[in-house]
Amino acid sequence: MARYNTWQNSSLVAAADGLTHEDRWKDRGAFFQSIAATLNHIYWADALMLQRLKGNTRPEETITHSLTSPSDWREFKKLRSRRNEEIEIWAAQLPDTDLDGMVVWYPGDGSTRIEKPMDVCVIQLFNHQTHHRGQVHAMLTAAGAEPGPTDLPMLPQ
Description:
CATH class: Mainly Alpha
Radius of gyration: 16 Å
Shape: globular
CATH architecture: Up-down Bundle
Number of domains: 1
């Protein structure tokens, strides 16, 4: 799933490369309005969940979720590529036995302790990405861009 994540993010970024800055930020009626804002949401949500999976119980203290940052497309592409690599390295080093553990974190306001099974949180990391990438794929298609295939059997080896 980490390789799939990189492949799909790369496909969407390549398709969005053909759009103007204005087209990437245009309100298209999606949950986070624009292609760029939705891609930023995925980027920041990945950071939060990955930190939780790595044992950081308070990632919101150092990671601020933002729909508007980064606003520069070149900067976004660089950061997205780094995050993809971070996820792949983390996944490759994750022992199967770690999937039996628990993930604990406190939301931004620190009021409630949340504890969930590690395997469910790992699935959530990838499921959340897929959900929002589907929205971006639809917005890109409506904007006239042509993102690549999304089916798992098409994942390059």
